[in-house]
Design brief:
Blueprint lengths: L15 E3 L2 E3 L4 E5 L6 E6 L3 H20 L2 H16 L2 H12 L3 H19 L5 E5 L3 E9 L2 E5 L7 H12 L3 E5 L6 H10 L8 E3 L5 H8 L5 E5 L2 H11 L5 E5 L4 E5 L5 H13 L9 E7 L3 H14 L18 H16 L3 E4 L15 E4 L6 H4 L6 E7 L2 H9 L3 E2 L1 E5 L3 H10 L4 E4 L14 E2 L2 E2 L4 H6 L2 E9 L1
Parallel strand pairs: 7-8, 7-10, 8-9, 10-11, 12-13, 12-18, 13-16, 15-16, 18-19
Antiparallel strand pairs: 1-2, 3-4, 5-6, 6-22, 11-21, 14-15, 17-20
Protein name: aldehyde dehydrogenase (NAD(+))
Catalytic activity: an aldehyde + NAD(+) + H2O = a carboxylate + NADH + 2 H(+)
Family: Belongs to the aldehyde dehydrogenase family.
């Protein structure tokens, strides 16, 4: 990939960025193109010294950055957004290479970076004032200091900027750790940021998973913002507790969609399928359990199957491709395990095949499992891939209880023509984000977080800013 005109950014060489400077490493790792299975570019593996140096640089930069007026910080974020826009084509191609996403959807993610920055720049840091005859109490929100942003591989750009933008806006310095499966866009994003922000304000240290532990235990880091699995999130919380770090954890989900009997089947069924299979099912808030009223179960399932059979799976630049491959071999093998288990247990494949065709990339045709039991793996666990179960229901109280019968609570959907009735059901679903007559579409304007083991705290929205701050109450007596 060639850089944009008049740009010095080289999209074929990758560095960690510490104190505004490019760093190589003694050891390197590389991502893999999931379309071909071929190795991509080398990236340096960050060390404890890199982390220590990054924390030192961030702490040095913090006093001046936190004292920079809010409007000036917004101005710099907007300049960064403009600079990023000038490289949108290169970032889209890079994202296709490392993630395997169809180009259309890679382009949507790249455009979303500017949406996230723009939204955050429309916000102000809240301040609350209470006055009575005796005193005035003003509550202000001040930056924490150094933030560690640990990012996943499924949306490496959006989920990085979703941490970077509010952290910088509120006056924090941030150290980004991209996933070793998709390191490239995150490394290049932060390298580009050096053209706008002072050294030490935004840095990136990538490499092995050991880096996550180095960040979470480091006494110089005040907060960890983590997006990833429940198991790793628990480790982040445990190690962060040693220094009483603030943590925001956005973890896995097992989202239920409840289909009411009054829906327009032909219109809604394809939308429900999209909720399950978007990004090849590699979405924390993807629909992962579908409960269809028994009166429409058969025709609704048939409409889902019809649409699923029309979905084209392929490489990023193939015409008409809707789904790309699974992003990495580890996840590919995990998803294959759900297919194998469903086949071994004799569950009915309404769409797709229990046997996955071998290919040079990590491709899987989407599958729908017709009415497996409640205790089956495909119902009880999160596959994070293009396979979803459907079950019929008849009693509303029972299906709400079934939807809530999980240790997770990230997202959920309710579909029905009677919107008021659907909203009443939505209020009773134990999830951080519930969507009525839409599949799961998180937006930066709304708080995003999970109930139960799906996470701690929220990101995005107006509340997301506060999560990067300490509250301070100033009591002034008259």
């Amino acid at each position: 990939m060639s850089p944009s005109k008049d740009s010095t950014l080289d999209f074929g060489v990758f560095y960690n960025i510490v104190d505004g400077k490019k760093r190589t490493g003694i050891d390197v790792h590389h991502g893999v193109n999931p379309v071909t299975g071929d190795e991509l570019w080398d990236c340096p593996i960050g060390t404890q010294q890199d982390v220590d140096d990054a924390v030192t640089a961030a702490k040095k930069a913090f006093p001046a950055w936190s004292a920079t007026p809010l409007e000036k910080r917004k101005e710099m974020l907007r300049k960064f957004s403009d600079l990023f826009s000038a490289h949108s084509e290169e970032f889209t191609t890079l994202l296709c290479k490392e993630s395997g996403k169809p180009r259309k959807f890679a382009g949507i993610e790249v455009a979303g970076v500017n949406d996230f920055i723009g939204w955050h720049c429309s916000l102000n840091i809240p301040e609350e004032r209470l006055e009575d005859d005796e005193k005035v109490v003003t509550t202000v929100y001040q930056p924490l200091g150094v933030v560690g942003a640990i990012c996943p591989w499924n949306f490496p750009l959006i989920l990085a900027i979703g941490k970077i933008a509010p952290a910088l806006l509120t006056g924090n310095c941030v150290i980004v750790k991209p996933s070793p499966f998709t390191p490239y866009t995150g490394l290049k994003l932060v390298e580009l940021a050096q053209e706008i922000f002072p050294p030490g304000v935004v840095q990136v240290v990538g490499g092995s998973n050991d880096l996550g532990a180095m960040l979470t235990i480091h006494p110089g880091i005040a907060k960890i913002s983590f997006t990833g699995s429940i198991a790793t999130g628990k480790k982040v919380m445990e190690s962060g507790a040693k220094t009483l770090k603030r943590v925001t954890l956005e973890l896995g989900g097992n989202d239920a969609s409840i289909i009411l009997p009054d829906v327009d089947i032909e219109k809604v069924a394809p939308e429900v399928v999209m909720g399950a299979f978007q990004n090849s099912g590699q979405v924390c808030v993807a629909t992962k359990r579908i409960y269809i009223h028994q009166d429409i179960y058969k025709p609704f399932l048939e409409a889902m199957v019809k649409f699923t059979k029309s979905i084209k799976v392929g490489s990023s630049d193939e015409e008409g491709v809707l789904l790309g491959p699974i992003q990495n071999q580890m996840q590919y093998e995990k998803v294959k395990g759900f297919f194998a288990d469903s086949k071994a247990k004799g569950y009915k494949f309404a769409a797709g095949s229990p046997d996955i065709t071998a290919s040079k990339g990590y491709f899987i045709q989407p599958a729908i499992i017709d009415n497996p039991p409640n205790d089956s793996r495909i119902v009880a666990e999160e596959p994070f891939g293009p396979i979803v179960p459907t079950q019929p229901w008849s009693d509303e109280e029972e299906v709400i209880a079934r939807a809530n019968n999980t240790n997770t609570g990230l997202g959920a959907c309710v579909w029905g023509k009677d919107v008021a009735h659907a909203e009443k059901i939505a209020m009773r679903l134990d999830a951080g984000s519930v969507f009525v007559n839409s599949w799961e579409k998180p937006t930066p304007q709304a708080a995003f977080g999970g109930h139960k083991e799906s996470g701690i705290g929220t990101e995005w929205g107006t509340r997301g800013l506060i999560s990067f701050c300490n509250a301070k109450a100033i009591h002034v007596y008259k």
